[in-house]
Amino acid sequence: MRVMGVDPGLTRCGLGAVEGRPGAPLNLVKVGVVRTAADEEIGARLVAVEAGIEQWLDELEPDAVAVERVFAQHNLRTVMGTAQASAVAILCASRRGIPVALHTPSEVKAAITGSGTAGKQQVGTMVTRLLRLDAMPKPADAADALALAICHVWRGGAQNRLAEALARTQTGPGTTAAAYFRGRGRAGHSRGTAK
Question: pLDDT tens digits for 29-52?
Fold first, then answer.
């Protein structure tokens, strides 16, 4: 499965995509960031983030998008920008019918390093090892986006298998999880779906 991870932010929105399946080596597809200037008007910044995410979705056609779940921070201005960028990412993927998963920072850290309290350096180091990269992705937002994607391949894969098993028991063999959820009112994903 191909998963695009989004580490939401207004100044730097980290984006990273990996391909693989649980229990097998993962491959880097692409990594980068969408940047906006802090002195720009909020609407223009959100439009720029949207355009960057849309471009990645067009190019990569991911099977799923993993977004960092926004958590409470002491700096309200920072958490608001993160929440706004997160909403843009969720909207862009959902508009295309691509499944979106939200993962908390501690969930991602635990999946990547084995510790939910790992620091950014530890996460970046493990991402570098897991993807067999020559150097750690920079800035940290890019490495965090890859960590989100890796976390989802490992955890989302199990969730997808459970959903498919449930679908088979309720609707018969050959039914995919996407078809099951479509039948229950949730949009399924098909590559090349128009915006």
Answer: 999 999 999 999 999 999 999 999
